[in-house]
Design a protein that fits this description.
The chain is an alpha/beta fold. It folds into two domains: 229 residues, Alpha-Beta Barrel (TIM Barrel); 76 residues, no CATH class. 40% of the residues lie in helices and 15% in strands. It contains 14 helices and eleven strands. Strands 1-9-8-6-5-4-3-2 form an eight-stranded parallel β-sheet. A hairpin with a 6-residue loop joins strand 10 and strand 11. The radius of gyration is 19 Å and the shape is globular. It starts with 12 loop residues before the first helix and ends in a 6-residue tail after the last helix.
Protein backbone atom coordinates (compact mmCIF):
# COMPACT_ATOMS: atom_id res chain seq x y z
CA UNK A 1 0.00 0.00 0.00
CA UNK A 2 1.27 3.46 -0.93
CA UNK A 3 2.06 5.68 2.08
CA UNK A 4 1.39 9.35 1.37
CA UNK A 5 4.31 11.65 2.11
CA UNK A 6 4.10 13.92 5.14
CA UNK A 7 3.88 17.02 2.95
CA UNK A 8 0.47 15.91 1.68
CA UNK A 9 -1.07 15.76 5.14
CA UNK A 10 -3.35 18.60 6.18
CA UNK A 11 -1.46 19.01 9.46
CA UNK A 12 1.99 20.39 8.68
CA UNK A 13 4.42 23.20 9.48
CA UNK A 14 2.07 25.90 8.15
CA UNK A 15 -0.83 24.73 10.29
CA UNK A 16 1.56 24.67 13.25
CA UNK A 17 2.99 28.10 12.43
CA UNK A 18 -0.46 29.74 12.27
CA UNK A 19 -2.25 27.38 14.70
CA UNK A 20 -4.97 26.57 12.15
CA UNK A 21 -6.73 23.35 11.14
CA UNK A 22 -6.12 23.39 7.38
CA UNK A 23 -3.19 24.72 5.31
CA UNK A 24 -5.59 26.99 3.43
CA UNK A 25 -5.23 30.77 3.50
CA UNK A 26 -7.76 33.27 2.16
CA UNK A 27 -5.97 36.10 0.33
CA UNK A 28 -6.14 39.64 1.72
CA UNK A 29 -7.67 41.29 -1.35
CA UNK A 30 -8.43 45.01 -1.59
CA UNK A 31 -12.16 45.91 -1.45
CA UNK A 32 -13.05 42.25 -0.91
CA UNK A 33 -11.42 40.94 2.27
CA UNK A 34 -13.14 42.56 5.22
CA UNK A 35 -13.70 41.14 8.68
CA UNK A 36 -16.79 39.12 7.71
CA UNK A 37 -14.87 37.06 5.15
CA UNK A 38 -11.75 36.73 7.31
CA UNK A 39 -13.75 35.56 10.34
CA UNK A 40 -15.79 33.09 8.28
CA UNK A 41 -12.68 31.46 6.78
CA UNK A 42 -10.91 31.30 10.15
CA UNK A 43 -13.99 29.79 11.78
CA UNK A 44 -14.05 27.16 9.01
CA UNK A 45 -10.49 26.06 9.83
CA UNK A 46 -8.42 28.13 7.41
CA UNK A 47 -6.61 31.41 7.94
CA UNK A 48 -8.73 34.45 7.14
CA UNK A 49 -7.00 37.68 6.16
CA UNK A 50 -8.22 41.28 6.34
CA UNK A 51 -6.97 43.26 3.35
CA UNK A 52 -5.60 46.54 4.73
CA UNK A 53 -4.70 47.88 1.28
CA UNK A 54 -8.13 49.45 0.77
CA UNK A 55 -8.56 50.70 4.35
CA UNK A 56 -7.67 53.92 6.12
CA UNK A 57 -6.17 53.25 9.57
CA UNK A 58 -9.44 53.93 11.41
CA UNK A 59 -11.33 51.54 9.11
CA UNK A 60 -8.70 48.84 9.63
CA UNK A 61 -9.00 49.26 13.40
CA UNK A 62 -12.76 48.80 13.14
CA UNK A 63 -12.39 45.64 11.07
CA UNK A 64 -9.82 44.13 13.44
CA UNK A 65 -12.05 44.77 16.44
CA UNK A 66 -15.11 43.30 14.70
CA UNK A 67 -13.09 40.28 13.54
CA UNK A 68 -12.04 39.58 17.12
CA UNK A 69 -15.71 39.49 18.12
CA UNK A 70 -16.65 37.27 15.16
CA UNK A 71 -13.97 34.61 15.70
CA UNK A 72 -11.71 33.28 18.43
CA UNK A 73 -9.47 31.70 15.78
CA UNK A 74 -6.25 33.19 14.37
CA UNK A 75 -6.59 35.69 11.55
CA UNK A 76 -4.09 37.88 9.70
CA UNK A 77 -3.72 41.30 8.08
CA UNK A 78 -2.35 41.82 4.58
CA UNK A 79 -0.39 45.06 4.21
CA UNK A 80 0.84 46.23 0.76
CA UNK A 81 4.08 48.05 1.53
CA UNK A 82 3.66 50.74 -1.12
CA UNK A 83 0.48 52.08 0.48
CA UNK A 84 0.43 55.25 2.64
CA UNK A 85 -0.12 55.42 6.42
CA UNK A 86 2.15 52.42 7.07
CA UNK A 87 3.36 53.75 10.44
CA UNK A 88 -0.20 54.10 11.68
CA UNK A 89 -1.31 50.77 10.22
CA UNK A 90 1.57 48.83 11.76
CA UNK A 91 1.05 50.46 15.15
CA UNK A 92 -2.65 49.54 15.09
CA UNK A 93 -1.72 45.93 14.28
CA UNK A 94 0.71 45.83 17.20
CA UNK A 95 -1.67 47.56 19.61
CA UNK A 96 -4.48 45.16 18.67
CA UNK A 97 -2.17 42.19 19.21
CA UNK A 98 -2.77 40.67 15.78
CA UNK A 99 -0.43 37.70 15.56
CA UNK A 100 0.09 37.27 11.80
CA UNK A 101 0.89 39.80 9.06
CA UNK A 102 1.27 39.18 5.33
CA UNK A 103 3.30 41.90 3.59
CA UNK A 104 3.41 42.45 -0.16
CA UNK A 105 4.51 44.83 -2.92
CA UNK A 106 7.63 46.16 -1.25
CA UNK A 107 10.84 45.40 0.63
CA UNK A 108 10.23 42.97 3.52
CA UNK A 109 13.27 44.35 5.37
CA UNK A 110 11.34 47.54 6.12
CA UNK A 111 8.95 46.04 8.69
CA UNK A 112 9.80 42.38 9.37
CA UNK A 113 12.08 42.97 12.36
CA UNK A 114 9.71 45.49 13.94
CA UNK A 115 6.75 43.13 13.63
CA UNK A 116 8.64 40.08 14.89
CA UNK A 117 9.97 42.03 17.88
CA UNK A 118 6.32 42.58 18.75
CA UNK A 119 5.51 38.87 18.62
CA UNK A 120 4.06 38.85 15.10
CA UNK A 121 4.62 36.12 12.50
CA UNK A 122 5.55 37.68 9.15
CA UNK A 123 4.84 36.27 5.69
CA UNK A 124 5.91 38.02 2.48
CA UNK A 125 4.41 37.64 -1.00
CA UNK A 126 6.78 37.24 -3.98
CA UNK A 127 6.57 36.35 -7.66
CA UNK A 128 10.11 35.06 -8.32
CA UNK A 129 12.89 32.92 -6.87
CA UNK A 130 15.06 36.03 -6.57
CA UNK A 131 12.63 37.80 -4.27
CA UNK A 132 11.87 34.62 -2.36
CA UNK A 133 15.55 34.41 -1.43
CA UNK A 134 15.66 38.11 -0.54
CA UNK A 135 12.63 37.63 1.70
CA UNK A 136 14.22 34.63 3.41
CA UNK A 137 17.36 36.70 3.97
CA UNK A 138 15.17 39.45 5.46
CA UNK A 139 14.08 36.94 8.11
CA UNK A 140 10.42 36.39 7.25
CA UNK A 141 8.75 33.32 8.75
CA UNK A 142 7.17 32.07 5.53
CA UNK A 143 6.76 33.01 1.87
CA UNK A 144 3.80 33.18 -0.51
CA UNK A 145 4.94 32.50 -4.08
CA UNK A 146 2.30 33.88 -6.43
CA UNK A 147 2.13 32.95 -10.07
CA UNK A 148 1.08 34.82 -13.20
CA UNK A 149 -2.46 33.39 -13.05
CA UNK A 150 -3.34 35.40 -9.94
CA UNK A 151 -5.82 38.25 -9.94
CA UNK A 152 -5.20 41.84 -8.98
CA UNK A 153 -1.68 43.16 -8.58
CA UNK A 154 0.81 40.71 -9.98
CA UNK A 155 4.50 40.17 -10.68
CA UNK A 156 6.16 41.27 -13.90
CA UNK A 157 7.89 37.94 -14.52
CA UNK A 158 4.83 36.14 -15.93
CA UNK A 159 5.96 32.89 -14.30
CA UNK A 160 3.07 30.50 -13.77
CA UNK A 161 2.35 29.09 -10.33
CA UNK A 162 3.19 25.50 -11.15
CA UNK A 163 6.52 26.58 -12.62
CA UNK A 164 7.31 28.95 -9.76
CA UNK A 165 6.47 26.70 -6.79
CA UNK A 166 9.02 23.90 -7.41
CA UNK A 167 11.73 26.44 -8.27
CA UNK A 168 11.16 28.36 -5.04
CA UNK A 169 10.80 25.17 -2.99
CA UNK A 170 14.23 24.05 -4.19
CA UNK A 171 15.85 27.26 -2.98
CA UNK A 172 14.32 28.16 0.39
CA UNK A 173 14.27 26.52 3.80
CA UNK A 174 11.24 28.23 5.32
CA UNK A 175 7.56 27.30 4.78
CA UNK A 176 6.15 27.98 1.32
CA UNK A 177 2.56 28.93 0.41
CA UNK A 178 1.41 28.64 -3.22
CA UNK A 179 -0.90 31.27 -4.74
CA UNK A 180 -2.36 32.01 -8.15
CA UNK A 181 -4.76 29.84 -10.14
CA UNK A 182 -5.88 27.67 -7.21
CA UNK A 183 -9.56 27.35 -6.31
CA UNK A 184 -10.16 23.62 -5.79
CA UNK A 185 -8.87 20.79 -3.64
CA UNK A 186 -7.28 19.20 -6.71
CA UNK A 187 -5.36 22.41 -7.35
CA UNK A 188 -4.36 22.51 -3.69
CA UNK A 189 -3.07 18.93 -3.86
CA UNK A 190 -1.12 19.66 -7.03
CA UNK A 191 0.54 22.71 -5.46
CA UNK A 192 1.53 20.72 -2.39
CA UNK A 193 2.92 17.86 -4.47
CA UNK A 194 5.11 20.47 -6.21
CA UNK A 195 6.54 21.61 -2.87
CA UNK A 196 4.10 24.03 -1.23
CA UNK A 197 3.16 23.61 2.43
CA UNK A 198 -0.16 25.42 1.96
CA UNK A 199 -2.17 27.40 -0.56
CA UNK A 200 -3.46 30.95 -0.60
CA UNK A 201 -6.76 31.35 -2.44
CA UNK A 202 -8.22 34.68 -3.52
CA UNK A 203 -10.58 34.61 -6.49
CA UNK A 204 -12.76 31.79 -5.16
CA UNK A 205 -13.50 33.82 -2.03
CA UNK A 206 -14.46 36.90 -4.07
CA UNK A 207 -17.59 34.94 -5.00
CA UNK A 208 -18.51 34.22 -1.39
CA UNK A 209 -21.49 35.49 0.57
CA UNK A 210 -19.21 37.21 3.09
CA UNK A 211 -16.89 38.98 0.66
CA UNK A 212 -17.36 42.76 0.55
CA UNK A 213 -17.26 42.78 -3.24
CA UNK A 214 -20.32 44.29 -4.92
CA UNK A 215 -22.88 41.76 -6.12
CA UNK A 216 -22.44 43.06 -9.69
CA UNK A 217 -18.77 42.12 -9.54
CA UNK A 218 -19.49 38.74 -7.94
CA UNK A 219 -21.92 37.95 -10.75
CA UNK A 220 -19.34 38.90 -13.38
CA UNK A 221 -16.86 36.51 -11.76
CA UNK A 222 -19.42 33.71 -11.90
CA UNK A 223 -20.09 34.44 -15.59
CA UNK A 224 -16.40 34.57 -16.53
CA UNK A 225 -14.94 31.98 -18.91
CA UNK A 226 -11.39 31.05 -19.82
CA UNK A 227 -9.69 33.89 -21.63
CA UNK A 228 -11.82 36.60 -20.01
CA UNK A 229 -8.95 37.99 -17.91
CA UNK A 230 -5.73 39.69 -19.03
CA UNK A 231 -2.65 40.95 -17.20
CA UNK A 232 -2.17 44.60 -18.12
CA UNK A 233 -0.71 47.94 -16.97
CA UNK A 234 2.75 46.44 -16.52
CA UNK A 235 4.28 49.91 -16.89
CA UNK A 236 2.57 50.91 -13.65
CA UNK A 237 1.64 48.02 -11.33
CA UNK A 238 0.66 44.88 -13.26
CA UNK A 239 -2.95 43.88 -12.66
CA UNK A 240 -5.04 40.98 -13.96
CA UNK A 241 -8.47 42.26 -14.93
CA UNK A 242 -11.73 41.07 -16.40
CA UNK A 243 -12.30 42.58 -19.83
CA UNK A 244 -14.75 45.49 -19.74
CA UNK A 245 -15.13 49.03 -21.09
CA UNK A 246 -12.26 50.34 -18.95
CA UNK A 247 -10.01 47.50 -20.07
CA UNK A 248 -10.84 48.22 -23.71
CA UNK A 249 -9.90 51.87 -23.17
CA UNK A 250 -6.52 50.79 -21.81
CA UNK A 251 -6.02 48.54 -24.83
CA UNK A 252 -6.84 51.47 -27.14
CA UNK A 253 -4.20 53.58 -25.38
CA UNK A 254 -1.65 50.82 -25.90
CA UNK A 255 -2.49 50.74 -29.61
CA UNK A 256 -1.67 54.46 -29.68
CA UNK A 257 1.72 53.82 -27.98
CA UNK A 258 0.64 55.64 -24.83
CA UNK A 259 3.31 56.56 -22.30
CA UNK A 260 3.26 55.39 -18.70
CA UNK A 261 2.16 58.90 -17.71
CA UNK A 262 -0.79 58.74 -20.10
CA UNK A 263 -1.79 55.31 -18.77
CA UNK A 264 -1.55 56.59 -15.20
CA UNK A 265 -3.70 59.63 -16.04
CA UNK A 266 -6.41 57.44 -17.55
CA UNK A 267 -6.24 55.03 -14.64
CA UNK A 268 -6.88 57.90 -12.25
CA UNK A 269 -7.87 57.12 -8.70
CA UNK A 270 -10.06 54.50 -7.05
CA UNK A 271 -10.71 52.41 -10.20
CA UNK A 272 -10.65 49.18 -8.18
CA UNK A 273 -13.06 50.59 -5.61
CA UNK A 274 -15.36 51.77 -8.41
CA UNK A 275 -15.52 48.35 -10.02
CA UNK A 276 -15.14 45.81 -7.22
CA UNK A 277 -16.75 47.61 -4.28
CA UNK A 278 -19.24 49.96 -5.94
CA UNK A 279 -20.20 47.67 -8.82
CA UNK A 280 -19.47 49.93 -11.81
CA UNK A 281 -18.84 47.21 -14.37
CA UNK A 282 -18.02 49.65 -17.18
CA UNK A 283 -15.63 52.14 -15.63
CA UNK A 284 -14.04 50.21 -12.78
CA UNK A 285 -11.13 47.79 -12.49
CA UNK A 286 -12.43 44.24 -12.08
CA UNK A 287 -9.48 42.39 -10.55
CA UNK A 288 -9.75 38.60 -10.67
CA UNK A 289 -7.60 35.57 -11.47
CA UNK A 290 -7.67 33.24 -14.45
CA UNK A 291 -9.30 30.61 -12.23
CA UNK A 292 -12.55 32.64 -12.43
CA UNK A 293 -13.48 30.35 -15.33
CA UNK A 294 -13.93 27.54 -12.78
CA UNK A 295 -16.12 29.58 -10.42
CA UNK A 296 -19.81 29.18 -11.15
CA UNK A 297 -21.65 29.89 -7.90
CA UNK A 298 -21.66 32.33 -4.99
CA UNK A 299 -21.50 30.39 -1.73
CA UNK A 300 -20.85 30.96 1.99
CA UNK A 301 -17.15 30.88 2.84
CA UNK A 302 -17.65 27.89 5.14
CA UNK A 303 -19.05 25.85 2.24
CA UNK A 304 -16.15 26.91 0.03
CA UNK A 305 -13.58 25.76 2.60
CA UNK A 306 -15.42 22.47 3.15
CA UNK A 307 -15.66 21.87 -0.61
CA UNK A 308 -11.94 22.50 -1.12
CA UNK A 309 -10.87 20.21 1.73
CA UNK A 310 -13.29 17.47 0.68
CA UNK A 311 -12.06 17.71 -2.91
CA UNK A 312 -8.46 17.58 -1.64
CA UNK A 313 -9.07 14.44 0.38
CA UNK A 314 -10.95 12.74 -2.46
CA UNK A 315 -8.15 13.58 -4.90
CA UNK A 316 -5.56 12.27 -2.44
CA UNK A 317 -7.36 8.93 -2.20
CA UNK A 318 -7.07 8.60 -5.97
CA UNK A 319 -3.40 9.59 -5.96
CA UNK A 320 -1.04 6.72 -6.73
CA UNK A 321 2.48 6.17 -7.93
CA UNK A 322 2.96 4.51 -11.31
CA UNK A 323 6.06 2.38 -11.49
CA UNK A 324 7.75 2.52 -14.88
Amino acid sequence: MYIYPNFLKLRNKITSLFNIKYPLIQAGMVWVSGYKLAAAVSNAGGLGIIGAGSMYPDILLEHIQKCKKATNKPFAINVPLFYPDLDDIMQIIVNQKVKIVFTSAGNPRLWTKFLQENGITVVHVVSSVKFALKSQDAGVDAIVAEGFEAGGHNGREETTTFTLIPMVADQIKIPLIAAGGIATGKGMLAAMILGADAVQIGSRFVASKESSAHINFKNEVVKAKDGDTVLTLKELIPARLLKNKFFNEIEALYSQNATAAQLKKHLGRARAKKGMFLGDLDNGELEIGQIAGLINQIKPATEIVTEIITDYNNALKQFSVLKL
